[in-house]
Design a protein that fits this description.
Layout: H1 4-14, H2 24-29, H3 36-43, H4 45-56, E1 65-70, E2 73-78, E3 81-82, H5 84-97, E4 101-106, E5 112-116, H6 117-133, E6 141-145, H7 150-162, E7 165-168, H8 175-185, E8 189-193, E9 196-198, E10 201-203, H9 205-213, E11 221-225, E12 239-241, H10 242-248, E13 258-259, E14 263-269, E15 277-282, H11 284-297, E16 306-309, H12 316-328, E17 332-336, H13 347-355, E18 359-362, H14 364-373, H15 376-379, E19 388-392, H16 398-408, E20 415-418, E21 452-455, E22 461-462, E23 465-471, H17 486-494, E24 501-509, E25 515-520, E26 524-527, E27 530-533, H18 534-542, E28 547-557, E29 561-570, H19 578-588, E30 597-600, H20 614-621, H21 636-647
Parallel strand pairs: 4-17, 6-7, 6-8, 7-14, 8-11, 11-12, 16-17, 16-18, 18-19, 19-20, 29-30
Antiparallel strand pairs: 1-2, 3-13, 4-5, 9-10, 14-15, 21-22, 21-23, 23-24, 24-25, 26-27, 28-29
The protein binds 5'-O-(acetylsulfamoyl)adenosine.
Length: 652
């Protein structure tokens, strides 16, 4: 934690003195106004989670052990049996809530669909039978590569219903990235769409899927949802239209109880190497964790609230807080397909007004973008239905927090800044909005049932000041491993500090015990809340025939949090345009991984042992004075680079 950058961040945050206690009017209707949940969980966290599992989840067979913990593996609610799809659908319909709206779907072009819990149950049962008819059985993996349309939730819930694990790949990933993930998971079936809407145009998903499936021997069938109405090629015998299969499908598929530790899904996320990790999540613990956090962090009143999480289902936030948490809690949600500036900059605020959204959950990068667009867009709309705001994906700077509070929440909505990861399954550190006094930019405290501590380099607990964020005991939604790579699981999360889960984030505790998250301490970048490893982008760059060597760093960016900056050395005698290389990265990984800027350099700064000095490259990219360069093999390399960058035309 010796980086200047991190010290600056700590100093900035130390200056933040504003505090916002829950208002009386919020406290009057809140689920949790006092500290009793914390007190209960502090007494016995296992018993606390058992109570949540009992109250929030319906079990076919009750568990006989709450938690089995053999570091680094935990099992929760052992012996218990349940079906996640039953919990998200059937039980609400059986309780007479079939006509309650599950989703108000808003397509980017303006088309809408209202989907009740009965509707959703009907679709999921049929699609479960479709999957069965395609040969999918319990334990198989199914890949999902869809736009943000209700069929994404249908496909996920149908997998859960029959015990197949889904692996959702974000629709913005390239054919190559999709193929890598399908091959790692050895999925049998791929569910995709002809295309989806984005900024007024249709993006051709099926084309990417075709390219991917050309190199995925395990895929037997491809199911295609019609959404973009764009032309596609259907391969007879392999490809099937979703609507054709659905009309022929049996409408009844009884939910089969699954073991509490049955694999529910894989979700690939970037680590510090070039190969994404298939994070494993299972059934009973995960559902308990996401229902509990969705209920209490968002203070959910399912009969009154309209919940809108703006994430894509391709990320963990979409899994936990669009599909599983909210549906298990019987919430009514908005699902939006497109971008926030189509047809104009006020689309999000228009949607909030239209559906009278009460709880809005989005990312700091989005908030900073809205800030740039100005206050006129939100000012045009009646946002008075909002009563709670949330933030996720990266640290939220106090300035953005205050803007969000004032211009979206009209100074009355609490903001829950929620820290968690793909690996944690659900929210870990967050205020409880009716109980916690907020500080702008702080995620405040570990939730009841969660143990979080900051430690120093030697693993010693820090009570005040900066260090590494660790988790001290298992929790129900924790990852159960990395698909096919037990060693990497142990190594990545459980080897840095004995007996503790290492999150990879820096954090600081202030003198009142508030947690301030400071971003990644490893080679993982966070661009607009999306995790991308420097190595992944470097591998993509060097896979271009003209590139000899590449170094990638995440530099601070006022909108996206971090921006990808690449330094590239070309093969002698070869030339290539910056744009060509950026597009090459988009083809290899996806548009989100495109470097913002590429600097060409004859050499990269290296230590004598040949390690690229990324810290120096970050300093250079952010225009800082260089710190210690004594370990450099050739100090001239950096001076040369600085000169080039100073001379280069600016991007902004
Ligand atoms: C939910 C999600 C995880 C990484 C994590 C952090 C960063 C997420 C916050 C945050 C500060 C937050 N899963 N992060 N939320 N940093 N404050 N409230 O984003 O697996 O995609 O990313 O995101 O660095 O390690 S993720």
């Amino acid at each position: 934690m010796a980086d200047n950058e991190e010290h600056d961040a700590i100093d900035d945050l130390l200056l933040e003195q504003r505090k916002f206690a829950p208002t009386d009017s919020f406290k009057k209707q809140t689920l949790i106004a006092g500290t009793h949940l914390y007190d209960e969980a502090n007494q016995d966290y296992e018993a606390f989670w058992a109570r949540q599992a009992d109250e929030l989840v319906s079990w076919d067979t009750k568990w006989n052990r709450i938690c089995e913990w053999e570091l680094p593996y935990s099992k929760w609610f052992v012996g218990g049996r349940l079906n996640v799809s039953y919990n998200c659908l059937d039980r609400h319909v059986l309780a007479g809530k079939g006509d309650k709206v599950a989703f108000y779907f808003e397509g980017e072009p303006g088309d809408t669909r209202t989907i009740t819990y009965s509707d959703l149950l009907g679709e999921v049962q049929k699609f479960s039978n479709v999957l069965k008819s395609l040969g999918v059985v319990k334990g198989d993996r199914v890949n999902i590569y869809l736009p943000m349309i209700p069929e994404a939730a249908v496909a996920m819930l149908a997998c859960a219903r029959i015990g197949a694990a889904h692996s959702v790949v974000f629709g913005g990933f390239s054919a190559q990235a999709l193929a890598d993930r399908i091959n790692d998971a050895e999925a049998k079936v791929l569910i995709t769409a002809d295309g989806g809407w984005r900024r007024g145009d249709v993006f051709p998903l099926k084309q990417q899927a075709d390219e991917a499936v050309a190199t995925t021997p395990t895929i037997e069938h491809v199911v295609v949802v019609r959404r973009g109405n764009n032309a596609v090629t259907m391969k007879p015998g392999r490809d099937h239209w979703y609507h054709d299969l659905m009309v022929a499908a049996d409408p009844v598929c009884v939910a089969e109880p699954m073991d509490s530790e049955q694999l529910l899904f894989l979700l690939y996320t970037s680590g510090t190497t070039g190969k994404p990790k298939g994070i494993m999540h299972t059934t009973g613990g995960y559902l308990t964790h996401v229902s509990y956090t969705h209920k209490y962090v968002f203070d959910l009143h399912p009969e009154k609230d309209i919940f809108w999480c703006t994430a894509d289902v391709g990320w963990i936030t979409g899994h936990s807080y669009i599909v599983y948490g909210p549906l298990a809690n019987g919430a009514t949600q908005v699902m939006y397909e497109g971008v926030p500036n189509f047809p104009a900059n006020d689309r999000m605020w228009q949607i909030i007004e239209k559906y009278k959204v009460t709880i809005f959950y989005t990312a700091p990068t989005a908030i900073r973008t809205y800030m740039k667009w100005g206050t006129e867009a939100p000012g045009k709309h009646d946002l008075s239905s909002l009563r709670l705001l949330g933030s996720v994906g990266e640290p939220i700077n106090p300035e953005a927090w205050m803007w969000y509070r004032e211009h979206i929440g009209s100074n009355k909505c609490p903001i829950v800044d929620t820290w968690w990861q793909t690996e944690t399954g659900g929210i870990m550190i967050s205020p409880l909005p009716g109980a916690t006094t907020l500080k702008p930019g702080s995620a405040t405290f570990a939730l009841p049932g969660i143990g979080a501590e900051v430690v120093d380099d030697a693993g010693v607990t820090v009570l005040k000041g900066g260090g590494y964020l660790t988790l001290t005991h298992p929790w129900p939604g924790m990852l159960r491993g990395i698909w096919g790579d037990a060693e990497r699981y142990q190594e990545t999360y459980w080897s840095r500090f004995a007996g503790r889960y290492f999150a990879g984030d820096g954090a600081k505790l202030d003198d009142e015990g508030y947690l301030w998250l400071l971003g990644r301490v490893d080679d993982v970048m966070n661009v607009s809340g999306h995790r991308i490893s420097t190595t992944e982008v470097e591998s993509a760059l060097v896979s271009h025939p003209s590139v000899a060597e590449a170094a990638v760093v995440g530099a601070n960016d006022s909108t996206t949090g971090q921006a990808i900056i690449a330094y590239v050395t070309l093969v002698t005698g070869k030339e290539v345009d910056e744009q060509v290389l950026r597009n090459h990265v988009a083809t290899e990984i996806g548009a989100i991984a495109k470097p913002k800027t590429i600097y060409f350099t004859p050499d990269l700064p290296k230590t004598r042992s040949g390690k690229i000095m990324r810290r120096l490259l970050r300093d250079v990219a952010e225009g800082r004075n260089l710190g210690d360069t004594t370990t450099l093999a050739d100090a001239n390399v950096v001076l040369e680079l600085q000169k080039r960058i100073a001379d280069a035309p600016s991007e902004d």
